[in-house]
């Protein structure tokens, strides 16, 4: 039997091609595709001293905060919802779909838990200055002062409100797979379209978790940079003097459609999601396997899913967190996948400018990857002044103009949750 061949609507495996028809993004660099792309390619940083809460006594006092979209109260669920709404509005508008989104919703959101100010309010209402007991919670709940917090701090509320706003079909899916979450949301949308369950999917990654508790928890793990001055120089992926990541926040949204559906309605196709690869790693709760085997497997799975070889990748949008261990592990993995070619394959990390946007990172970096393909320009990895001689990579230190047809976008999360995407300008 003859091998299947790709067409304008199906890939070589006979699956519906997944086209991207809408993009939306919010980061500390600005609101929307234009503001973010201009800043990224200019090498501007959105990392600054935190002004949202007191920072005295903290080892890390900087972050890539989105300070131009405020909420009350300033809590992760509301911030995440606000960022997601703005990004989704831009993406859906660009796609030209109109009212009533014709597909499902997949939203990557941070794990939701009550934050310190709210826990303190509960403790005061319960008359228990320390840890609130179950009986104390019952007494506080009886006052009915906190009824609104029920919806605010329940996992899935953000997705429910987005679904109501855009009229997506079916039950909205909320997911949290650590730092790979945004890429996982895209993967779920791709797989649903390929299975024929829907013709379109709205895929979002969002995170508004820059708060004192998150900052302190990551600090206790020694994961954050303590190079606070100047803030914009702290995130330095693949540099010898890197010392940790910088927290960031924001959101990105992608409208995915079957290529057949997009063409039938005359939509402009901005690119394709050609492949998705996922691999779990049970090595440690936060650390990745030092041999890089799971991330190597995830990258190779994405290439295999796209039906292409390593030689057909033009650029790697790295996970590139700026932590000593992650950057070393990613470099090791890329060397295994691409061989000697890695020394001349352009690699860059957007986190050098916007910080690590955690749950949103995979989606934000997918949007940047598609813009890189469309514009033929690779954003730089800023602060790359002192290369690590142990990492034999072609790190893009200043924006590079070059033809880019296919990008491998890496997302590696705590707990060994690794997801890689292959994005392209045309079918494989």
TrEMBL record:
Domain Ketosynthase family 3 (KS3) span(s) in chain numbering: 15-425
PROSITE patterns in UniProt: KS3_1 (PS00606), KS3_2 (PS52004)
Keyword presence, Transferase: yes
InterPro entries xref list: Beta-ketoacyl_synthase, Ketoacyl_synth_AS, Ketoacyl_synth_C, Ketoacyl_synth_N, PKS_Beta-ketoAc_synthase_dom, Thiolase-like
Keywords on record: Transferase
Gene3D superfamilies reported for this sequence: 3.40.47.10
Pathway assigned in UniProt: Lipid metabolism; fatty acid biosynthesis
Pfam families named among the record's database cross-references: ketoacyl-synt, Ketoacyl-synt_C
Family membership: Belongs to the thiolase-like superfamily. Beta-ketoacyl-ACP synthases family.
The protein's name in its UniProt record: 3-oxoacyl-[acyl-carrier-protein] synthase 2
Taxonomic lineage from the root: Bacteria, Pseudomonadati, Pseudomonadota, Alphaproteobacteria, Hyphomicrobiales
Gene: fabF_2
């Amino acid at each position: 039997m003859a091998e299947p061949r790709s067409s304008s609507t199906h890939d070589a495996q006979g699956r519906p091609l997944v086209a991207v028809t809408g993009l939306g993004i919010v980061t500390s660099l600005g609101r929307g595709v234009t503001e973010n792309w201009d800043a990224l390619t200019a090498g501007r940083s959105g990392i600054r001293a935190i002004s949202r809460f007191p920072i005295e006594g903290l080892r890390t006092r900087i972050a890539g905060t989105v300070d131009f979209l405020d909420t009350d109260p300033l809590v992760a669920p509301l911030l995440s919802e606000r960022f997601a709404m703005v990004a989704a509005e831009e993406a859906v508008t660009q796609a030209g779909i109109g009212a009533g989104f014709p597909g499902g919703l997949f939203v990557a959101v941070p794990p939701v838990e009550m934050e310190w100010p709210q826990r303190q309010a509960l403790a005061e209402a319960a008359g228990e200055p320390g840890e609130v007991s179950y009986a104390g919670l019952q007494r506080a709940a009886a006052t009915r002062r906190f009824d609104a917090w029920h919806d605010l701090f329940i996992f899935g509320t953000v997705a429910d409100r987005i679904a109501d706003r855009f009229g997506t079909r079916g039950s909205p899916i909320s997911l949290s797979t650590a730092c790979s979450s945004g890429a996982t949301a895209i993967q779920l949308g791709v797989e649903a379209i390929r299975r024929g369950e829907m013709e379109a999917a709205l895929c979002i990654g969002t995170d508004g978790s820059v708060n004192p508790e998150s900052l302190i928890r990551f600090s206790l793990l020694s994961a954050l940079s303590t190079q606070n001055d100047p803030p914009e120089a702290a995130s330095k992926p693949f540099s010898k003097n890197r010392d940790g990541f910088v927290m960031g926040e924001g959101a990105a949204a992608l409208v995915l459609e079957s290529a057949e559906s997009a063409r039938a309605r005359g939509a402009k196709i901005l690119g394709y999601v050609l492949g998705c690869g996922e691999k779990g790693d049970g090595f440690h709760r936060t650390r990745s396997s030092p041999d890089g085997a799971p991330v190597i497997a995830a990258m190779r799975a994405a290439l295999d899913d796209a039906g292409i070889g390593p030689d057909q990748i033009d650029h790697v949008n790295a996970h590139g967190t700026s932590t000593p261990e992650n950057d070393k592990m990613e470099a090791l993995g890329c060397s295994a996948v691409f061989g000697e070619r890695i020394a001349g394959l352009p690699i860059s990390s957007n986190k050098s400018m916007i910080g690590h946007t955690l749950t949103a990172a995979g989606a934000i970096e997918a949007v940047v990857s598609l813009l890189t393909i469309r514009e033929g320009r690779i954003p730089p990895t800023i602060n790359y002044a002192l290369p690590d001689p142990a990492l034999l990579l072609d790190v893009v230190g200043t924006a590079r103009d070059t033809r880019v047809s296919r990008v491998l976008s890496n997302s590696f999360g705590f707990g060994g949750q690794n997801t890689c995407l292959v994005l392209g300008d045309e079918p494989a």
